[in-house]
Amino acid sequence: MRYHALACDYDETLAAEGRVDDGTVAALERLVRSGRQLIMVTGRELEDLLRVFPRLDLFDRVVAENGAVLYRPADQTSTPLAEAPPARLVELLRERDVEPLSVGSVIVATREPHGDTVLHAIQELGLEMQMIFNKGAVMILPSGVNKASGLAAALAELGLSAHSTVGVGDAENDHAFLVACECAAAVSNALPAVKERCDLVTEGERGAGVAELAGRIVETDLSEVDVDRHHLLLGTVEDGELRFSPYGLRLLIAGPSHSGKSTVTAALLERIAEAGYQFCLIDPEGDYIEGIEGAVVLGDGRRAPTEDEIVQVLKEPGESVVVNLLGVSLDDRPGFFEGFLPRLSALRARHGHPHWLVVDEAHHMMPDGFGLESVSLLREAGALLMVTVHPAAVSGPVLQTLNAIAVVGESPGDALGTFAAATGQILPPEDFPDLPTGHLLLWQPPAEPLRVELTPPRQERQRHRRKYAIGDLGEAKSFYFRGPHGALNLRAENLAVFCRLADGVDDDTWNHHLRRGDYSRWIAEQVKDEELAAEVAEVEREPGDSAAEARRRVRELVEDRYTAAATGPG
């Protein structure tokens, strides 16, 4: 389910001449029974609304006074979201015969033609107030308070995201909250300017239009509405930019080691995060130890994250999570993920987020034997991103949940063939040449595979740099100085420790590993820095006059690339 809440304006949207008809109420009741939540967002004062509409019990929250008051129908409590209006402003408006004049908990309201009088009073008193117009009404509120800010407060209390919300309205003061919603709807009687900015317009007017919208949400989850204003950039193709929907994509990123999978993943995660979508990234090998801007990293090499702490963070729709599984033994990581998946799915079923589930090293986390019940939970994710070097090692039923694959590097046809066989698609009979760095093949059947030039992350990341410099790679990926007779067992868990130990070991131990090419092999396979590995391999082939000289050259190569990452910004 994509949409978990409907946010409605009241006058001339839900209501006609202040009243809501029985058919509209019945449609709202059906929407509530579907498990969705209702939020009213109105310019009316609360007492007035309670008097004219007796079915506020259908709503989980009411935003009144154009965003200034939050009301909870379940316990009939309310909270002002800004300070009360200055008494001197009210007095001055009365002195100048502004009628009608209504004073709420926060709002002061009148009607045209008093707009100029209100503006002059605000300027005369030196107040930081704003005027909002709505079909002849003039509303005076503190700066920054509007229907969008009030809706944000309501969604925060409910643990919901605007990205899981549909909004419907009709007038000028609805613009702000409609744009904030994932899908913006206008009833057919809405002002032309409102209709132009919305993603859909109902056929019916007022309450009939809201009933129509509620029915479509229940029946189709608005799957027929492509909200392309939220599409995210992937890259460029021959005829321009290529963008994708933030909902419903189930993408596998595949390719050999060091072929650019991490760059594609980083670019997608950057755009997902910048657009405000929440993600949960399962990171089996600690490759995201520095995290992603705006994401919370849970777990490290010494401590496994707990399910409770992951869920607690994800309950806040503005917080994304990197689940670092280095503290979980290698064999137990798939079980940890499969055991946690039901709780993640339950959170999404209740609140509509996280919007994205991202699984790195998918061949390890979801191998053959991955439970069918867990596969069904994957299908319920809003969007799914999996990354692997071995697509053939990913569980077949898991591959069948996918609807797209992005392949990078050499022999892209191999990964495309694996995807086609697993999903029952027919791969076009053509040769797929090796892909240069920065390019990928995107296949979303039944469309033909597209060659895409990736638009890289805005800030090119050295994703692992700080981790490899001073983090803990874990025992399996550390370097061990053992010496020619295996008498030593000195563990270097990162490059900084490697350099310190290298300076301290005896020459026989240093030269033993040097002659075997152990240093460059470790840097290539575990540190995943092929450029540095190639430079160190040159030293291994031509070590110089002494062990001390070779040590110095290797240390300088490492420090040139990693000292800044180890020390961090100054």
From TrEMBL:
<dbReference type="GO" id="GO:0000287">
    <property type="term" value="F:magnesium ion binding"/>
</dbReference>
<dbReference type="Pfam" id="PF08282">
    <property type="entry name" value="Hydrolase_3"/>
</dbReference>
<dbReference type="InterPro" id="IPR023214">
    <property type="entry name" value="HAD_sf"/>
</dbReference>
<feature type="domain" description="AAA+ ATPase">
    <location>
        <begin position="247"/>
        <end position="414"/>
    </location>
</feature>
<dbReference type="InterPro" id="IPR027417">
    <property type="entry name" value="P-loop_NTPase"/>
</dbReference>
<dbReference type="GO" id="GO:0016791">
    <property type="term" value="F:phosphatase activity"/>
</dbReference>
<dbReference type="InterPro" id="IPR003593">
    <property type="entry name" value="AAA+_ATPase"/>
</dbReference>
<protein>
    <submittedName>
        <fullName>Phosphoglycolate phosphatase</fullName>
    </submittedName>
</protein>
<dbReference type="InterPro" id="IPR036412">
    <property type="entry name" value="HAD-like_sf"/>
</dbReference>
<dbReference type="InterPro" id="IPR006379">
    <property type="entry name" value="HAD-SF_hydro_IIB"/>
</dbReference>
<dbReference type="GO" id="GO:0005829">
    <property type="term" value="C:cytosol"/>
</dbReference>
